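Please check this:
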Amino acid sequence: MPRKSANANFPTAARSHARRGDSTDLLAVATAVRQARVESGLTQAQLALVSGVGRATVIALENGRPGVSLGHALKVMRGLGLTLRPAERR
């Protein structure tokens, strides 16, 4: 059911950019990216510019949504000085 705006005659759709993913792995990456961005004092727009991706990509990555390409995710992470490490084998 669509949400109602302040004026009940105009229903509004849920904010698609605010939806969060449900994968625990993607949400862990999202948390790390958001935390590093905030600690760096960058806005999402500034991070996008530094990384060479669109702001929508940064938003999607920070929300843990699937669909962000690995290449774009790595660009954003590189822009923050983050890297991926292989998991330790058991």
